[in-house]
Every structure is written in structure tokens, then in C-alpha cells.
Amino acid sequence: MGRTVRAAGWMARAMLLLVALPVAAPAGAQPDPGARVGRTVADARLHGYRFERLSVASADGQRHYRVHLAIPAGAMPARGFPVACMLDGNAVLMALEAPLLEQLAASARPPVLVLVAHDNDLRIDGPARTWDYTPRRGGGDGEEFDASGNGRRSGGADAFLALIVERILPAVRQRVVLDEGRRMLWGHSYGGLFALHALATRPGAFTDYVAVDPSLWWGEGFVVGELERAARRSPSRPARLLLVRGAPAASSRDGRAGPGGRGAGNAEAGRRLDAVLAELPGMEVQRLRLPGLGHGQTLGAAIAPALLSLAVDD
Q1: Cα–Cα distance between 188 and 191 in angstroms, integer?
Q2: Do the domain assignments include residue 26?
Q3: Which pLDDT value is given to residue 35?
Q4: Which residues pair with 233 in a beta bridge?
Q5: Three-state SS annotation for 253-302
Q6: Which of 284, 133, 275, 271 is nearest to 209 (CA)?
Q7: Are 226 and 201 in contact (CB under 8 A)?
Q8: Rounded mean pLDDT of 243-265?
Q9: What is the mean pLDDT of the chain?
Q10: Biggest distance spanned by C-alpha atoms of the chain
Q11: Cα distance between residue 32 and residue 29, in whole Å
Q12: What gap in Å lies between CA 117 and CA 64, rounded to an integer?
């Protein structure tokens, strides 16, 4: 694959399947955040998967989403299909490639992919994802703004999580039988922040959580504080967590790796996260390193390991 990975347990089994797949992007290629969805694998002729699209609105009708469904075409496993709910659905769809889907389709437990996107053709909708993927930091119902200081509204994570769990997944269940014992939530950057927020506040909603280069710095480690409080509550439900991290360049334009910038915040929050994960009962944690890949590149690189982990046996 041209890069080193470190993993153990169920992720190690998934990585054995991953080595045969082509690398999605060369090491120097950074995704264009302003790109729009063009022709994707959903438009290709596939033997192992079929694609459908759902339209979903928020409970108040103010926000609209498109959900790309990739449903295995083969026989259903005895317990139903595992399901992977993936944020930044347009970006994931643009990064998906036929060889991965073909490999998933040939496995004993191919997952249903639920790619949740905002209802437009943007690869990444910055303002919309800032609202949906970030938790509220204070009490009451006053307006909050993003901790990065970009002026975008924040704090809609709980409503968005309810939308996924109470509206989107039930709509998927009307179309295909899901294995309730393998439900994954996958997110990158602010989406990784959201995945950890869901783990801390609604741990029974999913069995598997994937946080890809999560924005741990956000709100001075706010989500780590949520997990610390969750550890004190001693949740009884077991879960699996995959933490994927890349190695962004020191000259990163948003300061993630700069001294005293987001990189420093991530490092401090990461130390706290490691400590609290060791205290969470029933938590199985795996870590995957993608050295040489910057923050934007980890989105595409982390898709296959996560999905293949659902396709391997427990």
C-alpha cells in the first residue's frame, strides 16, 4: 500500500484484506474541499452492490439531507447485514471505488452503507456540517458559534444524532434487514468529533465507532470531557472504537500541527483521551496510524479499513 499501518485484533484481520486494494490517492494529493459530486461509483455498473437514495428532513423541516444507500446484492447473512453510517456522505461517495465494493460484496458479511450528506452537490458543506457535527458547550438554548472562531453556528449534534437514529436508520430498515449487533458510526474531523460525542452521550446507538483524525482540540477538548463524565457513569454497554490518525504537515494552513495551534490542542486532548478510554468498561479500542497522510487525505484512506472490519467475523 505504500504506507505503514499499526493495528491489532479485529482491525488486524481487516488489514489483511486491505493490502490487496489500490491506494485511493497519491501521497501528495490533497482533496479539494470545494469540489462537487460528479460521476461516482454509484453511476457505475456493479455486480455486488446497488445504490438507492433517500431524502430526509430534520424534525423541524428546516434542514434537508440526501442519504446514499449502498445495498449488497447477494444473499443476506443469517443475522442481517451489518450497517455503516458514514458522515460527509458526498465526500465518502466520491472516494469509494469499485474494487472495495467488490471485495465487500464477496465477503461473508457485506455491510450496508448509509452515506449521510447534506442535500446539495458539495463534497463538504462547511457551515452545515459545523452545525450538525458539533455539540452544545453550554446550557440553555441560546445561539452558539463554532469554537474555531469562523463565525459559523454550532451545537446541533444532538438533534442530528436523533435524526440518524430515529429517522434515517428506521427508513433503511424498511428496505433491508440489518444486523443489530453490528452498527457502525464513521466520521472524519468534525465528524470524528461527532462520533466520539455519540459514544459519550448515546453509547447504545451503535456498536462500532470510527473517529478519523477527530477534532479533539475543539472547545478545548470538550468531547474528551464528555467521555470523562461517561466513564464516571460507568456505562454497561460494550462498544468498539477505532481511532485513525494521520500525520499532517507542519505547515498545515489551518494550524493543526503548529505549536500552540490545533495540533497542540489535539495532542493534549489525545493524552486525556487515551487515559479515559482505559477507564471505560467494555470498550475495545483499536488504533490505526496512517503516516505520511495529511488531515484531508485520511478521510479517503480510512474508508476501507473501517468497512472491511465490519465484513470480517467477530
Answers
A1: 4
A2: no
A3: 94
A4: none
A5: CCCCCCCCCHHHHHHHHHHHHHHHHCCCCCEEEEEEEECCCCHHHHHHHC
A6: 284
A7: yes
A8: 59
A9: 87
A10: 53
A11: 9
A12: 9
Task: Identify the pLDDT of residue 235.
Answer: 55
Give 169's contacts (C-beta < 8 A, 6+ positions apart). Answer: 83, 85, 114, 178, 183
Q: How many domains does the chain have?
A: 1
| Chain centroid to CA 125 | 16
Establish how many alpha carbons lie within 13 A of residue 237's alpha carbon, considering only the half-sphere containing its beta carbon: 15
Given this model, what pLDDT does residue 23 score? Answer: 45
Whether 215 maps to a domain, the answer reads: yes
What is the CATH classification number for the domain harbouring 161?
3.40.50.1820
Residue 26: CB atoms within 10 Å: 8
Query: Identity (one letter) of the amino acid at 252?
Result: S
Question: What is the domain range of residue 251?
Answer: 10-17+44-311
pLDDT at position 1 is 33
* Cα–Cα distance, 129 to 201 (Å, whole number): 19
Burial 96-134 (b: 16+ CB within 10 A, else e): bbeebbebbbebebbbbbbbbbbbeebbbbeebbbbbbb
In a domain, 4, yes or no: no
CA 51, CA 96: separation in Å to the nearest integer?
12
**Comparing C-alpha atoms, which of 183, 163, 157 is closest to residue 67?**
163
* Grid cell for residue 118: 447534506
- R_g of the chain, CA atoms, integer Å: 18
